[in-house]
Amino acid sequence: MTLRTLVLALALLGASRAPGRLAAQEPAAEAPSPDTVVFTPQRGKVTFTHKKHAELAECTSCHHESKPEKPLLTKHQACDACHTNPATEPVKTSLRMAYHNTAERTGICYDCHVKEAAQGKTLPIQCNDCHKRETAEEAAPQ
């Protein structure tokens, strides 16, 4: 997996799901992808540049095919539409673990970043390279 794959996965967390979707249905048309997506996990805000990652990788690098136990609602739906924290059946992988399982040193983001870095590319590789904690000034209300 490439860094592009990791970033695409992170960017696609915001799609909504429609109730009552049947497995035989084709995924619905989708809205254009955002250029940037911001995640706010406990480790610090992550700004995912979907547009940049989409230029570097195929959509399928991050977006997997629909699965019978949890059919996709759109062709490239947001990861958090199925991968929740914690994971809920029938999905077995939480959102965090889908991006990066630090204990096992794997996941869509992790695998891509490590592969790209091994090829000599400069990109985020440490936790705080992507996870940015707000300073007291940034957190203060305006």
Shape: globular
What structural class results from the helix and strand content?
Answer: mainly alpha
- Please mark out the parts with pLDDT under 50 across 5 or more consecutive residues, or reply none: 1-25
Order of helices and strands: HEEHHHHH
The biggest beta sheet, please? 2 strands, antiparallel
Please give the number of β-strands: 2
Q: What is the tally of helical segments? A: 6
- Order the strands across the largest sheet as they lie in space: 1-2
> For the CA atoms, what is the radius of gyration?
16 Å
Strand content: under 5%
Q: What share of residues is helical?
A: 25-40%
Q: Mean pLDDT across all residues, rounded?
A: 77
Q: How far apart lie the N and C ends?
A: 41 Å
Can you describe this structure?
The chain is mostly helical. The protein is built from six helices and two strands; from the N terminus they run αββααααα. It has a two-stranded antiparallel ribbon. Helix 1 runs antiparallel to helix 4. The termini are far apart.
